[in-house]
Description:
CATH class: Alpha Beta
Distance between the termini: 26 Å
Order of helices and strands: EEEHEHEHEHHHHHEHEHH
Low-confidence stretches: none
Structural class: alpha/beta
Amino acid sequence: MKFKINNIDVDYSVYGEKGPWIILSHSLGCTKAMWEPQLEMLQKNFRVIAYDTRGHGDSGSEGGTYTLDLLADDALGLLDHLGVDKVHWLGFSMGGMIGQTFALRYPERIASIVLADTTSAHTATPVSMWDERIRIAKTQGMDPLVQPAINRWFTETFRNSSPEIVEPVASMIRSTSVDGWAGCCAAIASIHTTDRLSEIECPAMVIVGEFDVGTPLSAALEMHKNLKKSVLVLISNAAHMTNIEQPTQFNRALTLFFNAFK
């Protein structure tokens, strides 16, 4: 389904028939399809909204630089369209950055927040690196960005043993629009919420992969330290894409956290 929000068509799907609402916000270079390993489990007890961030998947894009405020407002528009007053936020990487921004802008609309393989300030990936990724996309297209991302996102063992799982993720990156990639890279490069995380009053869970180099354990610990009501979960034998590389561990963490809200 699609709905026009802030001048673009946002593509979304709704799953489940009962329970509180959860919204799923995906990683840069992915689509709502990245949540497939979690959907069956979540929709048993929740109504689930999965959507494509602007410039990704089947959502529209605009040129220019995006901001995290804009991306958070896209999500707000979707919730308003669906008549959802309060939501549990499950955000992955970029989606976690959007979620932090959303929680700070609209605290009355958020019941809990899960921040998976994300950060509140870029230390491992400086702004210059994001600028370079934007330059490559604009001058060479998305193809040169695919394999470096895959190498960061999955351990070598998983890449070699499960190419049938890794390749669809590579296809998502490859199909991301240049405008969407560049706009979102600029938005997430500016993340600097660390000093404000203590303002987030809702329960939180921070998840990080053991071998995540882009948003490493140090970033997760910093968020955990600054959030008032948080738990920290380390996913073993996983790099960045913990929900795909180790779905059993990831889903167990979600189940334990969300059991309090059923």
